[in-house]
Amino acid sequence: MAEYAYMSEVDPEFAPYLPMFENLPPVFDVELRRKRFREVFTEAGAKTYGPRVPADGTYVVANHEIEVEPGIFIRARSVAPKNHDDPDKTYPLMVWMHGGGIVSLVLGLFVCVLTIHSAGWVSGDLETDDLALRAISHDVQIAVLNVEYRSSGDIPRKSIKWAATNAKLLNADLRKGFLLGGLSAGAHLTAVLSHSVRDDPFFKDYSS
C-alpha cells in the first residue's frame, strides 16, 4: 500500500480550511449543527452572492406556507423577475431544494425551477440559497420556488405539486419550463424526485 501513501497527505490548497472543521458539535446535536451550518454557509453565501443581488424593484419576493399534511405546513419563498412594461408576464418555473434538506421552487410565468437546499438532509433553511436564487432569477429570467423541508418523506413531492397547481401565483407558466434543482443533499432529492414526478399521473396534465 506504500504507493498510496501520498493520498494521506493534506492537499496544500485545502490545508487553510482545516481549522473550520475543528471542534465541530456532535452529530447527534442537530440544533447545534443547524446553527453552525447557518453561521458558516449563510455568511459565505452573503459574501459570494450579495454583490450580485439585483436592485430592489427588479424582482418580487413572497413567502408561502404549504400544507403538506392536514395541519402540517412547510415554508417556501418565491422569487420572480419584475417586468414593469408587462406586469402580467410569466416565466419558466424552477423548484429548488437547498443543501441539507431544503427545497426551493422557482416559478413565474417565466420558467419554473424547483430547488432543494443542501446540508445532509437535516440542516439548511430558506436563507441558505436565498441570495443566490435572487440573482439567478433576475439573471436568467426565471421564477424560483425555494422550499424548506426537514424530514423528507413525501413532502418534497407535495411541494412540487403545490407549485404546479399554483404556478400563476408564482408568476410562472409551466409551458415555458418546469425545472427541479438543488444543491448537495437537495441535488440528491431532486434527482430522485425527477423520476418520481415523471411517473406520477398527477403531472400528465403539465407535460405539454
CATH C-level class is Alpha Beta
Rg of Cα set? 19 Å
Number of helices: 4
Distance between the termini: 56 Å
The SSE order reads HEEEEHEHEH
Task: Find the CATH superfamily.
Answer: Alpha/Beta hydrolase fold, catalytic domain
Structural class, from secondary structure content?
A: alpha/beta
Count of discrete domains: 1
Strand and helix layout:
Elements: H1 30-49, E1 59-69, E2 72-81, E3 91-106, E4 110-118, H2 130-140, E5 144-147, H3 155-165, E6 178-182, H4 185-198
Parallel strand pairs: 3-4, 3-5, 4-5, 4-6
Antiparallel strand pairs: 1-2, 2-5
Helix pairs in contact: 1-2
Key phrases:
6-stranded mixed β-sheet; alpha/beta; membrane; 27% helix; 208 residues; Rossmann fold
Summarize the structure.
With 208 residues, this protein is an alpha/beta fold.
How would you explain this protein's 3D organization?
Residues 101-114 have low confidence and may be disordered. This protein has a single domain, classed as Rossmann fold (3-Layer(aba) Sandwich). It starts with 29 loop residues before the first helix and ends in a 10-residue tail after the last helix. It is built from four helices and six strands; from the N terminus they run αββββαβαβα. Strands 1, 2, 3, 4, 5 and 6 form a six-stranded mixed β-sheet that branches. The chain is an alpha/beta fold and 208 residues long. The chain has helices at 30-49, 130-140, 155-165, 185-198, and strands at residues 59-69, 72-81, 91-106, 110-118, 144-147, 178-182.
